Amino acid sequence: MIDGHTKLFGFLAHPAAHSLSPLIHNTSFKVIGINGAYLAFDVTSAGLADSLAAMRTMNIGGFNLSMPLKTDVIPLLDEVTPRAERLQAVNTVVNRDGRLVGDSTDGQGFIDALKTNDITLDEKVITVLGSGGAGRAIISAAVDAGARKVYVFKRTNDLFESRKEQLEAWSNVVEVLPYEDEELMIKAVDQSQIIANSTNIGMAGDKSLPVTPAVLNHLTSNHIVTDAIYFPLETPFIRAAKKQGSHTYNGIGMLVNQAAGSFLEWTGQRMPVDQVIQAVHEAVRQREKK
């Protein structure tokens, strides 16, 4: 029931209509009984400063952002957390009495999704495929969670050396390697307990795999394989890893748990993650039918 006391939150992106964030947060408000509403706003980089001014003026509680707004927003904020500073990306903004504070909950969402399945990264070896926004969040969180080694595979292009320097400066447990080097990837997979795909390979109709058949053959029942993609629910990589006997998890856990981090910062309450995951699963199933 929306009334004069309803607190507004939102998602800023271009485009924004596809987002599952309104479903996630409005389901949470309803289950817990919080008088809040979460809407999606189509905002470009050009309109971002005005959007933040409106947030302050109208005392909006907070909002989430997608790329490229995750980086564009940083100069417009009053403060960013250390993990957002490290990533140079903000997915969550909290309005603290007109002071806008930016944070990144993406990586912690990955960690918390694993924790719900009694999996930790402490002293584990993880191989991360890709070093884009999701990949860097996972890498950063894995370092903070006590991973013994973090192998990162990145495409060899003009950004390779600078990205390698950036990520390896975070910790001496991080090693950035060429994505195209099949032999190195096999060695990394053989040493790893967790394989995390952070690329968009396999998304929404793409039948490709993020690894070669030779690498795939080195996946075993001792591996935990995750995919940051949640549409489709079962990517080609997840399907192939299952056939190898690996324990697999799609991106819904990370999606919901990163949102739970935002929710906690905004409301001080824990998101009803199980109920939200059920709602998101159903929404994605309906999208798959279309």
TrEMBL record:
Catalytic activity, EC: 1.1.1.25
Domain Shikimate dehydrogenase substrate binding N-terminal: 12-93
Catalytic activity line of the entry: shikimate + NADP(+) = 3-dehydroshikimate + NADPH + H(+)
Database matches in Pfam families: SDH_C (PF18317), Shikimate_dh_N (PF08501)
GO function terms (MF aspect): NADP binding; shikimate 3-dehydrogenase (NADP+) activity
Transmembrane segments: none
GO biological process, one term: chorismate biosynthetic process
Domain called SDH C-terminal: residue spans: 251-280
Catalytic residues identified in the record: K70
Binding site for shikimate: S19, L20, S21, S66, N91, D106, Y230, Q258
Function: Involved in the biosynthesis of the chorismate, which leads to the biosynthesis of aromatic amino acids. Catalyzes the reversible NADPH linked reduction of 3-dehydroshikimate (DHSA) to yield shikimate (SA).
Entry similarity comment: Belongs to the shikimate dehydrogenase family.
Oligomeric form and interacting partners: Homodimer.
UniProt xrefs under HAMAP family: Shikimate_DH_AroE
Protein name: Shikimate dehydrogenase (NADP(+))
